[in-house]
Amino acid sequence: MLNMAAGLARLGDLAAHPVVAELGRAFADAGHDLAIVGGPVRDALLGRPTHDLDFTTSARPDDILRIVTPISTAQWDIGREFGTIGARVRGEQVEITTFRADSYDGATRKPTVEFGDTLESDLVRRDFTVNAMALRVPGVKLVDPTGGVEDLVAGVLCTPIDPAVSFGDDPLRMLRAARFSSQLGFDIEPRTREAIERLRATLEIVSPERIQGELTRLLGTDDPVRGIRVLVETGLIDEFLPEISALRLEVDEHHHHKDVYEHSLTVLAQAIEHEHARRPGADPDIPLRLAALLHDIGKPRTRKLEPGGAVTFHHHDVVGARMARKRLQALRFDGDTTASVSKLIELHLRFFGYSEGAWTDSAVRRYVRDAGDELERLHILTRADVTTRNRRKAARLAQAYDDIEERIAALREQEELDAIRPEIDGNRIQELLGIGPGPAVGKAYRFLLDLRLDEGVLGADEAERRLLEWWAAQD
């Protein structure tokens, strides 16, 4: 429940911030209005940490630059055509934008930039009422023309104007609704939700990069599952990530398997719990969270109904890895993220063979080698993938994974497992075998690597002897 007295006190603290106070005085002395707008005001009222300071003003860009230059150490006007001037004041980066009254053509997200004359008209054009509040400075005067405070109290997301108009102007706002639902723990007001369902296809005018950015921000919240549910239930996710809603497989009366969609959401939530436990205070691990969400997307394509009621998903790990790579590339994720996610999905079943029987040291080494830099994430994903309600089975799997991690740690200490490589490099292989660069060198290298994985450290002399012995036996 929002405590308004406490919230107003926090607004006072925000207005007293040294950067805010100095800017407020400078704009007032120049005869212009200035207000903090959007997220910082919302978060101050909610008692959440405030981060970036965004301002709006009656001043035009040239006037903004003239006012901030004497009190800032740097200025930039890369957003001048949109009315935005950036500056560094007292070591903090701020952005100050002229009141706007934009219009949209309905074909693109790019507005026709029009400067406005009042703070209220600027606020009405924003995405949600809880983000359409401002704090006039200097002083402490809350401006809330669209009922943002009431919606904060109610815990709902609602557009300041007709949602069909708002989303028609900028369809990306539909994705933001899901993100803010996760970020704030708010419900989406029914009329706003219905507009998302009806207008979801208009997302096609939004670039993949913008969609990817919002999805990344959603996954970086403390409870992304809430936002994923919004995307699936409204059908919006089908416009850019249909593999998730496809997880809601039908189950007939003769064949039974766990709900893959609900399982995937549980794995995502559990992966975040493990992530926080293992790396407290670290930034959200987006590749891990993507892998958790997508790890079973190969199941719909590989599902086979067997006689007797069994259901199989053979090779869904490999199929899912390919599907994830293709989808993440389409969404313009960077190469490192795409490679990490696809590798984690491809390897996410590997551990379950360990729980069925003790692995040799060779098998453990191969597990580490195949995981490479993704080993820590694979640890988390594999543990999160246990969602059984059978406590005995869950305990057995947890104990098995404790065991494999202990063995990896012991082998790492013993053999520097992180840098597994043959004890003879390619140049020495060529010298010993009397050959030049070519496929034979690679074949010899793989033989030595397998030897290293199977038997551990042999020493250079023994490795050379075994290599020569192997080479003599080749056709």
Automatic annotation (TrEMBL):
Cofactor dependence: Mg(2+)
Nucleotidyltransferase keyword on record: yes
Superkingdom assignment: Bacteria
SMART domains: HDc
Gene Ontology MF terms: ATP binding; metal ion binding; nucleotidyltransferase activity; RNA binding
Keyword tRNA processing: yes
One Gene Ontology biological process: tRNA processing
Keywords carried by this UniProt record: ATP-binding, Magnesium, Metal-binding, Nucleotide-binding, Nucleotidyltransferase, RNA repair, RNA-binding, Transferase, tRNA processing
Pfam families for this protein: HD (PF01966), PolyA_pol (PF01743), PolyA_pol_RNAbd (PF12627)
PANTHER family: MULTIFUNCTIONAL CCA PROTEIN
Entry protein name: CCA tRNA nucleotidyltransferase
Taxonomic source organism: Microbacterium sediminis
Phylogenetic lineage: Bacteria, Bacillati, Actinomycetota, Actinomycetes, Micrococcales
